[in-house]
Amino acid sequence: WERTLTASNGLRFARMSVLSNKERAEMLLVEASKLEITPEFFEALLKNGDVMEILRDLDISDEDSMTLFETLDVDGSGVIDVEELFDGISKLRGDARRSDVIRIMFMLQRLQGDFKDYVSSVEAAKRSHSGDIANRTAENRRGTM
Fold first, then answer.
1. pLDDT tens column, 39-75
2. pTM for this structure?
3. At 130, is the secondary structure helix, strand, or coil?
4. With contact defined as beta carbons under 8 Å apart, do 13 and 6 qualify?
5. By CB distance 3.0 to 4.6 Å, which of 41, 79, 110, 111 could disulfide with 36?
6. Read out DSSP for 35-88?
7. Closest C-alpha among 68, 105, 102 to residue 88
8. CA-CA distance, 128 to 140, in Å (whole number)?
9. 9 pLDDT band (50/70/90 cuts)?
10. How many CB atoms lie within 10 A of CB 46?
């Protein structure tokens, strides 16, 4: 992987040697922000003992690491970008606190209420459209008789 990265970005890194440290750091941050981790690559990472040790050092249990990709892929895009990776890992560290559990409970209650409102609006629209369809059907029948 490292050889591929160096080979594909060789010109970019050669150009960086004439830049200041600040400019190099900014360029590396921009490049890093474009990186995305696929499920296959993430699975390969989890097979690496060093990676698993790092996750354990970050207080991420072995059980959590099995579903970690789905947890970190917040936007459901099928890949993990750098922001999702850092945000997710920082939020997963250690045991859940009572405040975390309560916050999730309130979020779920709000989502449940939003979902009930949505279902009600869909049912109202369905009733409205059913009436419109029945009226048009009756008009069409009268027009063909």
1. 998 889 888 888 888 888 887 777 778 788 888 888 8
2. 0.47
3. helix
4. yes
5. 79
6. -EE-HHHHHHHHTSHHHHHHHHHTT--HHHHHTHHHHH-TT-SSSEEHHHHHHH
7. 68
8. 19
9. low
10. 16
